[in-house]
Here is the input.
Amino acid sequence: MTEYSFNRFSAGVWMFGRFVDRYAADGYGPEVSITDAIRTAASVGGIEALDLNYPFWGPGEPSVADVRALLEETGMRTLAITPEIYTQTFRAGAFTNPDATVRKQAIDLIARATEVAYELGADYMKIWPGQDGFDYPLQADPRRLWELSVDAMQQIAGPHPDLPFAIEYKPKEPRTHMFFSDAASTLLAIEDIGLDNVGVLLDFGHSLYGGESPAAAAELCLARRRLIDVDLNDNFRGWDDDLAVGSVHLLETLEFLLTLKRAGWDKPWKLDQFPFREDPVEAARASIRMLRALLRLLDRLDLDELDAARERQDALGAQRLAYDLLLGEFAAAE
Ligand code: FE
Ligand code: FE
Here is the structure.
């Protein structure tokens, strides 16, 4: 029973790029082109596919052919394309920008990115409308934001029924309130969008710091057959820290993996981290090591016993099953 992506991993290429924030506006390291980042990702070992930002960042403005050749050379493939609809041009929003010409620019950029997704054979398009939402009370009419977001998703995904479009939700940052903010409202919007090829990308960390149970949020998406992919990372629930997998919320991570395993998840486990001060290769390796360990542990978890404990809603009994495996000392401490 180890067929379920036991040893398969993917990553967002940005975790091997350069990080900038509002303090180190000069960046946390030298400029890195997307091709440099792809090479670094390949050096991790075990990453088979990448989620690539589009347009491809320079220096040198790498072309689609450059990226394709490099992926072939390094033995990786394109997992997804993420159009950058959250940069300076779109600072007041992409889908919900008050200026119709900017909204059109976002749709056009996504259309170009979608062509690239086909050219590179991506599994899906990842849509993260990071600047869509609002910052202040009274600033925006929620019904208008809903209309514009639903309409934009119909425009971009409607013409491509064979290509999945995954919406990544996030509660806040960069906006104080993002439009696609949680699992339930994103699923509700997807219902209004009304297209079979639109679903959710569930970022474990976004779910955590949005106050959800990531496992319960995953169940919600799975029940509606709308879970396209997941991003794995960790945080302290106050912010999108994008730390290494399992570094803070070990038990919730285990529960999340269990949920996906039981649903027959067969996709590579996707890393999404921002190792500002760590070596990104080591940060990715730490996550991969943790995922392998937790997935192996799940193989030994007695699911019948777990189900029996859950049927009784026996919190301590259910946790003990996991801790007995996680901590040798726990069982020995009787
Ligand atoms: Fe993410
Ligand atoms: Fe994030």
Observations:
- Strands lie at 9-12, 47-54, 77-83, 124-127, 133-134, 165-168, 177-178, 198-203, 227-231, 269-271.
- The pocket of fe (iii) ion (ligand 2) is lined by residues 170, 203, 205-206, 240, 242 (CB under 6 Å).
- The chain has a mean pLDDT of 96.
